[in-house]
Amino acid sequence: MKKQIKKLKKIAAVSAALTLVGAYGAVFAGCADKDETITLRVSSWEEYIDLGGWSDDELIEIDNPYNEELGGIIGKNSMVDDFTEWFNSTHDFKVKVEYSTFGTNEDLYNRLSLGDVYDLVCPSDYMLMKLIAEGACEEYSDEFLQSGEYVKSVSPYIKSVFKDYGWENYAACYMWGTTGVVYNPEKLDDISDVKSWDILLNEKYNRMVTIKDNVRDAYFVTLGILNKEELKGELSKDKRSEILNDVDSETIKAAEQVLKDIKDNVYSFETDAGKSDMVTGKVVANYQWSGDSVYIMDEAESDEKSPVELWYSVPEECTNLWFDGWVMLKSGIDGNAQRRTAAEAFVNFLSRPDNAVRNMNYIGYTSAIAGETVFNYMKWNYGVEEDAEDVYEYDLSYFFGGDHKIATDAASFDFEDGDRTVINRGRQLFAQYPSESVIERSTVMLDFGDKLGEINQMWINVRCLDLKDISPVTYCIVAVIAVVIVTGILLYVFRYKIFTGYKPKKGYKKVEN
Amino acid sequence: MKKLRFNRSQLCIPYAVFLILFVIAPLVVILYYAFTNGEGQFTFKNFASFFSSTNTLGTLLESFALAIVTTIVCLLIAYPTAYILARSNFKKKYVLLLLFILPMWINFTLRITALKEVLSVIEGNISKYQFLNSVIGMTYDFLPFMILPLYTSLLKLDKSLLEAASDLGASKFTVFLRVTLPLSVPGIISGMTMVLLPSMTNYVVLDMLHNSTFIMGSLIGSYFNAYDWNNGSLISIVLLVIIFIVTLVTNRFSDEDSNSRGAVL
Predict the structure, then answer these.
(1) Are A141 and A328 in contact (CB under 8 A)?
(2) Domain with B162 in it: what CATH number?
(3) A chain contacts of residue B54, beta-carbon cutoff 8 Å
(4) CA-based nearest residue to B256, from A193, A509, A313
(5) What number is the average pLDDT over the span A209-218?
(6) Burial (CB count within 10 angstroms: exposed 0-12, middle 13-18, buried 19+), residue B11
(7) Among residues A282, A283, A311, A315, which one has the least CA distance to residue A298?
(8) Distance (Å, rounded) from C-alpha A210 to C-alpha A184?
(9) What distance in Å separates the CA atoms of residue A153 and residue A354, rounded to the nearest whole number?
């Protein structure tokens, strides 16, 4: 698998380099007409699609109505190759996928504004909003919106959310999830500490928790901490969204202080190290996205030397519900009907439940696709026999519709009440599909709009060291060194006067031989 | 067939091209960005906001303190080492010297990652001692740059001068203080510049060991990551000017012995 990742990165790098030279775009387009091959330029997150190369024992043993010969679901080739093969054998023109990756939404946005051209990209919710608002997105065709594989298989819950925000015609949800805290219950003093975002400020865990090095996630947490009491009470959905999307200048100022306190309490602002720090036990709790949490929990419990059982908690105040969705870009599609067909076919291909399962299994995130195949995959993954000791019927009907409950081990949840309806902490299944009580207090974090600059500056201020926060020791060091340097310079300049009493005349200074 | 001949100035062309493409052009671009705003208009606002913000000034001071402490620690470790190496009659002293240079042949992110683990074992929780760790990390990284110039200047030292001093009745300590030390000043200055300058602008070591607080390198990085070329460029210019001043001062001091400076690397 490693090899393939490398290869893909190379391809991505080369394609990025090529697209940098704008003229190449035209060259590609010119080629496309001649031999009827469309180049589909897709850009998505790093490691966000099945790259294939599974070994035979990784077969997911569930019914696969799309390919019964396999006897299950398995990723032999990469998803992109499979798509190309499928597309070229079912359509009257050929497609070639140029798959590249980006690291952050801002990265993608800036690349687009610097003139890179993509047909299909997969940004997160707020970036979707921004791109749609700027009119950069192409609407999906009626055929796609009425009878496409995506529309057939997507979860009713996701559909309603996308409708509420007005993204339904422009974006097709790919993965979604929440944010929360991955923690090691054995190392926590008291399990109730992890019930609130202020575990990041808790002095009991001084330098033992980590937060993401990402301004949006950090700001969201701060809003949760600042409005802790209010958020714990009963709130309407709109009110909750209003509180958690507050970008008032005063709020930003208050957040700066809270974040400075968090900075002094956390182990690090991590970008990638969070996973390994958690597994090696350097930190006890780690602010995480749900998909990465699943990955961390899997890694930690399969660690050969010292397996650890980690849990995922969604704090009581709120959680950031996020969605990554595919959008077609006007700049790339450029009115080309074949290219649009290819882009829509790509989204539909990824939305086919067996492919959704492959991606989910490979990357650990939760697909927006519902349907029996995905549900069976969940059952295969987390289900227990009916006669197991303590079975809990985890209700996922909000996502899968109808009456979908997974009979799973009750020990993988941390219940708060006797009748087991409120679930805020659990293991992988809970991280992949949050309970309804979590969904109720979740909100989507919208685009910062024209406050973006102010918030970015706030973040830089947090990370810098204010003059008044510098320790007296540092000041002393600098002062002592300054004195030493000045004395040294003076001594050097007046060295003849002080040490020898006379200055040698010119010509006697150096003896050349 | 006509013989291919180059005169001197023609041989300079490859370097001139390199110089223009990779030294002068980037400098011009940085200067342009530093004194313009997002719309490309000329402004001093970036400049003013840098020097009026206590946050950036604090970061600058912290970076400076880190760099200076690192330099002094390096000097304190390197001088005795270089002295012993240069003085020893041990036949294989080049092997000893090699041992100090050897770590430079290993990728330094790798070395810092390893150092991080070692420090974790010793200190328990490395994020409690960020300043100390950064000094250790940079000392580890830059020590060879201090040892080498010191070693060469001590090696080149005329031994007859030391003998003469002893003959005239100076004690060992006086010989060191009055003869060896003054004669090795060019080496000290050369080594100090070689450590001070890179540690002022260091990025990777500090990012790995001083994670939650920005220092100059990561501050510039954070502006560039946010695609704010203007402020990032301005800070680069500020650093450039500081480095320029430091170089100017140190050059003045070693003017008389300029032929022994920078001879090693």
Answers:
(1) no
(2) 1.10.3720.10
(3) 466-468
(4) A509
(5) 91
(6) exposed
(7) A311
(8) 13
(9) 11
The whole-angstrom distance between A398's CA and the closest CA on chain B is 38
Chain B, window 5-64: residues with a beta carbon less than 8 angstroms from a chain A beta carbon: 53-59, 61-62, 64
Q: Which residue of B has its CA nearest to A114?
A: B227
pLDDT digits (tens, 9 = 90+) for B12-60: 899 999 999 999 999 999 999 999 987 888 888 888 988 988 889 999 9
d(CA A43, CA A49): 11
Which residue range forms the structural domain that includes residue B144?
31-47+56-260
H helix runs in A266-289, sequence order: 273-279
**Residue B1, domain member (yes or no):** no
Q: What is the DSSP letter of B86?
A: H
Using the structure block, give the residue that is written with the tokens 């005063």. A250
Q: Which residues of B are less than 8 Å from A494 in CB distance?
A: none
Closest C-alpha to A179, from A293, A298, A276: A293
Q: Which residue of B has its CA nearest to A106?
A: B226
Q: Scanning the structure block, which residue is given the tokens 């079912």?
A: A90
The b-or-e profile of B199-218 (16+ CB within 10 A means b, else e) is bbbbeebbbbbbbbbbbbbb
Q: pLDDT tens for residues B84-94?
A: 888 887 777 78
Nearest to B207 by CA among B141, B122, B123, B118: B141
Q: Can you give the pLDDT at residue A6? A: 36
pLDDT of A247-259, one tens digit each?
999 999 999 999 9
- Structural domain contains residue B23: no
pTM above 0.90, yes or no: no
Provide the 10 A C-beta neighbour count for residue A311. 25
Total domains, chain B: 1
Name residue A96's beta-bridge partners. Answer: A39
Place of tokens 């985890």: A394
> For residue B123, what pLDDT band results from cuts at 50, 70 and 90?
confident
Q: Is residue B22 part of a domain?
A: no
CA distance A333 to A321: 30
User: Is B228 among the domain residues?
Assistant: yes
**Where do we find the tokens 């000017």?**
B241
Task: Say if B226 is an interface residue toward chain A (CB within 8 Å).
Answer: yes
CA distances to A347, A510, B42, B219, B226 from A460, in Å = 38, 53, 24, 8, 10
Mean pLDDT across chain A: 86
